[in-house]
Design a protein that fits this description.
By secondary structure, the protein is of the alpha+beta class. Helix content is 30%, strand content 33%. The protein contains 10 helices and 16 strands. The protein is globular.
């Protein structure tokens, strides 16, 4: 991270949010600016994800700053002394962390002077990326009052503007609790389809070959190649081409059991069960023969107890466990 220049420190001392820790706030300002740079790299994005994972407070502070900073976009073209003062610190572009020092000053000026004073509904312009690693489970509280519950190994891009609230599911699974606002639709994009909230709680799971949607409460409209409305306790799936496909009957409460740290299977194929268990652990789970994938599994398993789940499965099926290496498990016919 860059070192604070004197003028930067002066402005930061005037910031009005007492709950923000100075060090975390400074780092959050760095990330707000760096992630919006044309020179940001994939390594920077990975470092940002690691920084978020270090402390839950990092994400909270970052979200607040993003909301305020993105709100400044609506002031583009405006001409008033405060904006001009902030932009006067903008430095020439260089490929170095130091280039962010001046922009951080600009950010600090606006934050110190209270952007929300100029933009009462500032949440309606924000852009953020959220992700989890294997085994992580994290809840994001959005500025509009909606909540995103991210399952293991998940990434979403959240973009709010004045007209619409948009979420792109890049990978993984998210449970959405949406505050309905008919004037500002909440739309989730997953592969070649979109799910539009009509006042509800729902789960979207992006898999390699399809997208699963389960509604816990209220209704959603799923727009793929065709449109279908989905009500509480209903599941729906479409493939990557946007075609609705048949999905085995499953209770929505089983579909969303991961929120309680559990996985529930009812007569599921063994290869599908291993794929689900593998989502939460940094270990390779495989079958010695593809034919074993046809075996069926039923039961409720604790996500964080992989060995227990495997012991139960092997005790009820004609298979045994082998450990070729510390991070690999192979199931073979007994």
């Amino acid at each position: 991270m860059f070192s604070l220049c004197p003028i930067h420190s002066v402005f930061l001392k005037t910031m009005p949010s007492p709950e923000l820790k100075n060090k975390s706030r400074d780092e959050a300002i760095d990330w707000v600016l760096k992630l919006r740079s044309k020179s940001v790299t994939q390594e920077d994005r990975q470092a940002f994800i690691s920084w978020l994972a270090k402390d839950p407070e990092h994400r909270q502070i970052y979200e607040r700053l993003v909301v305020r900073w993105e709100g400044l976009d609506r002031l583009k073209g405006a001409d008033f002394p405060l904006r001009n003062k902030a932009l006067s610190y903008r430095p020439p572009v260089r490929n170095s962390w130091h280039q962010w020092g001046g922009l951080a000053v600009a950010a600090s000026v606006f934050l110190a002077l209270g952007v929300s004073f100029f933009i009462p509904e500032v949440w309606k312009s924000s852009d953020a990326l959220y992700s989890t690693h294997h085994g992580q489970h994290y809840t994001i509280n959005l500025a509009d009052g909606s909540h995103l519950e991210l399952n293991s190994d998940t990434e979403v891009h959240v973009h709010f503007n004045y007209w619409k609230r948009s979420v792109k599911l890049v990978r993984g699974e998210v449970f959405f609790s949406v505050v309905h606002d008919a004037d500002h639709p909440f739309v989730v994009t997953a592969a070649n389809g979109q799910i539009e909230d009509i006042g509800t709680e729902f789960d979207v799971y992006l898999q390699a070959d399809k997208v699963l949607i389960g509604v816990q409460e209220g209704n959603v409209r799923v727009n793929a190649n065709e449109s279908r409305d989905l009500s509480a306790n209903q599941l729906l799936a479409y493939n990557r081409a946007g075609e609705f496909i048949d999905q085995p009957t499953e209770a929505v409460e089983n579909f969303t059991a991961w929120r309680q740290g559990q996985l529930v299977f009812d007569d599921r194929r063994l290869d599908e069960v291993l794929a689900e268990l593998g989502r939460y652990h940094n270990i390779k789970l495989s079958l010695a023969s593809s034919a074993l994938g046809n075996l069926k599994v039923s039961g409720r398993f604790q996500i964080d107890r992989l060995n227990s789940a495997l012991d139960i499965i092997t005790s009820t099926l004609p298979i045994t466990i082998q450990h070729p290496s510390a991070d690999e498990v192979v199931l073979r016919k007994r």
